[in-house]
């Protein structure tokens, strides 16, 4: 059986079972939701940094989903394409993904249907070095132990929107199962180490990254403007997984959603200050959104 082994276990999240469980509990304890949630949730956007920084933010989305849908049959995970050079979204369509909490099965039937639509190609090898989906899978395994997944590397092109729209149609036609779309992206990577300092270094630049640059991308997501999300990310470098997020919004839009709900917006500097009492010259934005 084809098995995708973890590449960032022990780095982005614990690689041992008991330690991973403990860290999941910490993430869930921090995932306090105060906003009113939609009566049904069809999709969410999550960050994908190490759990120390973004685990609680990602956990908010999965916690919100679980509040309304204790059983999810399949999560379609749109991932960022950090090192993938292909133009077409790439599906991991067979086998399992290994996690410290056990294997998670690929929904091969749904993956095959997506491939039949010609909106994506089969390319499991493309997933070998991409972490943006992997860091979500142990959370899914813990909260939804019977759920399957369909991981899809999603480049930031118009094809991402078409993929989301087609998947919305497939979900609509599948009236028996609960299928949820998850898009994985971090937001502005600001600072000298990232080579992105349009507003200079220091507090004012970091403030701009969060309050202006991140906010523009978030506002487009909340307004279901998938096309503008792609344009904004290409121009302003405010999302590393713009294709994944746009596909999610396109899918949610196709499933009848007219707005998103922002559960949290933070950044690595805020988290460092809260957890470690220090800040740095760089910062990465994170958001949790449900539809």
Summarize the structure in words.
With 291 residues, this protein is α/β, with parallel strands linked by helices. The chain has a domain at 37-186 and 239-279 and 285-290: LigB-like (Protocatechuate 4,5-dioxygenase, Chain B), CATH 3.40.830. Helix content is 40%, strand content 17%. The protein contains nine helices and twelve strands. Strands 2, 3, 4, 7, 8, 9, 10, 11 and 12 form a nine-stranded mixed sheet that branches. The radius of gyration is 17 Å and the shape is globular. The two termini are 35 Å apart. The mean pLDDT is 97.
Helix/strand/pairing category: alpha/beta
Main beta sheet: strand number and arrangement?
Answer: 9 strands, mixed
CATH class category of the domain at 37-186 and 239-279 and 285-290: Alpha Beta
CATH superfamily (homologous) name of the domain at 37-186 and 239-279 and 285-290:
LigB-like
Beta-strand portion reads: 15-25%
- Share of helix, binned: 40-55%
* N-to-C series of helices and strands: EHEHEEEEHEHEHEEHHHEHE
Distance between the termini: 35 Å
**Uncertain regions: pLDDT < 50 for 5+ in a row?**
none
Rounded average pLDDT:
97
CATH architecture of the domain at 37-186 and 239-279 and 285-290: 3-Layer(aba) Sandwich
CATH topology title of the domain at 37-186 and 239-279 and 285-290:
Protocatechuate 4,5-dioxygenase, Chain B
3D shape: globular
The value of Rg in angstroms is 17 Å
Oligomeric state of the chains in view: single chain
The count of DSSP E runs of length 2 or more, i.e. the number of strands, is: 12
Q: DSSP helix count? A: 9
């Amino acid at each position: 059986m084809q098995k995708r082994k973890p590449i960032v276990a022990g780095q982005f999240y614990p690689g041992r079972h008991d330690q991973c469980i403990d860290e999941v509990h910490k993430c869930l304890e921090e995932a306090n939701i105060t906003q009113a949630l939609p009566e049904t949730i069809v999709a969410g956007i999550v960050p994908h940094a190490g759990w120390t920084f973004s685990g609680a933010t990602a956990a908010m989305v999965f916690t919100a989903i679980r509040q309304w849908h204790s059983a999810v049959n399949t999560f379609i995970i749109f991932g960022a394409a950090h090192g993938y050079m292909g133009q077409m979204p790439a599906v991991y369509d067979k086998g399992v993904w290994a996690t410290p909490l056990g294997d998670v099965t690929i929904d091969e039937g749904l993956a095959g249907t997506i491939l039949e639509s010609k909106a994506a190609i089969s390319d499991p090898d493309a997933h070998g070095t991409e972490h943006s989906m992997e860091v979500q899978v142990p959370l899914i395994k813990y909260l939804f132990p019977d759920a399957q997944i369909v991981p899809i590397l999603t480049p930031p092109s118009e094809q991402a929107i078409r993929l989301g729209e087609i998947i919305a149609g497939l979900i609509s036609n599948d009236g028996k199962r609960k299928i949820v779309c998850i898009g994985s992206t971090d937001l502005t990577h600001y600072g000298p180490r990232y080579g992105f300092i349009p507003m200079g270094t220091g507090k004012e630049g970091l403030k701009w990254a969060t309050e202006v640059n991140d906010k523009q991308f978030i506002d487009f997501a909340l307004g279901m403007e998938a096309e503008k999300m792609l344009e904004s990310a290409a121009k302003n470098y405010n999302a590393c997984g713009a294709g994944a997020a746009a596909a999610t919004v396109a899918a949610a839009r196709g499933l009848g959603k007219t707005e998103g709900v922002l559960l949290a917006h933070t950044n690595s500097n805020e988290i460092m200050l809260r957890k470690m009492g220090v800040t740095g010259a760089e910062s990465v934005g994170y958001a949790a959104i449900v539809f």
